[in-house]
Design brief:
The chain has 339 residues and is α+β, with helices and mostly antiparallel strands. It has three domains: 25-116, Domain of unknown function DUF5300 (Immunoglobulin-like); 129-205, no CATH class; 211-338, Glutaredoxin, CATH 3.40.30.10. The chain is built from twelve helices and 16 strands. The strands form three sheets. The chain has a seven-stranded mixed beta sheet. Strand 8 and strand 9 (105-111) form a beta hairpin. Helix 2 (114-130) runs antiparallel to helix 3 (138-150) and helix 4 (156-168) packs antiparallel against helix 5. The protein is globular, with a radius of gyration of 25 Å. The termini are far apart.
């Protein structure tokens, strides 16, 4: 009897200790070993509207957050040699993330978030599926639409939507399928800053652009109008200086100006850069002398904001009446249009 009581008491103590350990867990618990010296850690959700914390680094970090965990998160490590960036799709409660910092963040285990592993599995399967073709196949579309359905209640649907839009931008029939699913997204996710829902809606419903409704900053940093030339087609290039694909395309486009002119196309650059000097230095150093403007500083008055242009580069072919002929992120699509 005494032995039984001792075992029962021991069991109660163990259960109590486990309960206390569980209570000690915060919303986000990081356990990282490191081969290098780390100064601090930055934690935020991707839009930085709910979470934004700089914290001193330690091997064990128990972090209380402002909101539920259900988004793409930055978990970045600041070292003496620079920033080690890491992004993770996370959901759940009292998450435990275990890993090691070398020249990158190596994640060994994530406990409490099924979304982390679902996102990794999605990326692995989609990369394998799309690696052999630059054009999306029917099976790829079916896979993406199925994943969109599966995650429609979750912010990860934003990432799936982005992948779908990237390769179906010119296919309104396929975009309509995605749009029908996206209409069922919860309002909070639908209004997420990184969500392409409004962009898809714009592609499906907006066929013209009234350029006279907008002001731009010219190379003299003065407010200016863009006027479409009568009888011409206009290629509007939306870009910014630190956009590597934009810079790569500009080198190519600069050798295609005669071809554009021969097709009666006038090239107009619209940058979202805010630093006028940096923008001008880029244009001057590369001798890019076509018509170039910057979108205005006031966000609500920008053409890029009102046309839901958030991926760069974006190319828009427009006639002199403002009718949109083509809208794409790939300059090759413009060349195909000219054939």
């Amino acid at each position: 009897m005494k032995k039984f009581l001792i075992l029962a008491l021991f069991s109660v103590i163990i259960t109590s200790c486990q309960s206390e350990r569980k209570k000690e867990l915060s919303d986000l618990n990081l356990y990282f070993e490191s081969d290098i010296e780390i100064d601090s850690v930055f934690i935020s959700n991707i839009t930085q509207d709910r979470e934004f914390q700089f914290l001193p680094f330690s091997n064990t970090m128990n972090i209380d957050l402002n909101d539920s965990i259900n988004d793409l998160y930055n978990i970045n490590f600041y070292t003496k040699n620079g920033l080690i960036m890491n992004q993770m799709w996370l959901d759940g409660k009292q998450l435990q993330i275990k890993g090691r910092i070398t020249n990158k963040a190596e994640i060994d285990t994530v406990i409490g978030s099924s979304l982390y592993y679902k996102a990794k599995d999605f990326s692995k399967r989609y990369k394998k599926m799309s690696s052999n073709s630059s054009e999306i196949s029917t099976s790829e579309n079916e896979f993406l639409l199925q994943e969109l359905e599966a995650h429609i209640e979750n912010p990860f649907s934003i990432h799936v939507t982005s992948q779908f839009l990237m390769k179906n931008m010119q296919n309104k029939d396929e975009l309509q399928k995605a749009y029908a699913i996206l209409n069922r997204q919860p309002k909070q996710i639908k209004n997420h800053l990184y969500n392409d829902f409004k962009k898809i809606e714009n592609l499906l419903t907006v066929n013209t652009i009234d350029i006279s409704n907008y002001k731009f900053l010219n190379t003299n940093n003065e407010l200016s109008d863009i006027t479409f030339s009568e009888g011409k087609i206009h290629l509007i290039d939306f870009w910014f200086v630190d956009c590597k694909p934009c810079v790569k395309d500009h080198k190519y486009i600069s050798n295609q100006l005669d071809k554009l002119k021969a097709n009666n196309i006038e090239l107009i650059g619209v940058s979202i850069d805010r630093d006028h000097s940096k923008w001008m230095n880029y244009l001057d150093s590369n001798s890019y002398n076509w018509a170039n403007f910057r979108d205005v500083d006031n966000y609500d008055d920008r053409l890029t904001k009102n046309m839901y242009i958030s991926t760069f580069p974006t190319y828009m072919l427009v006639d002199d009446q403002g009718n949109i002929i083509k809208n794409t992120n790939n300059y090759k699509d413009i060349e195909e249009q000219l054939k």
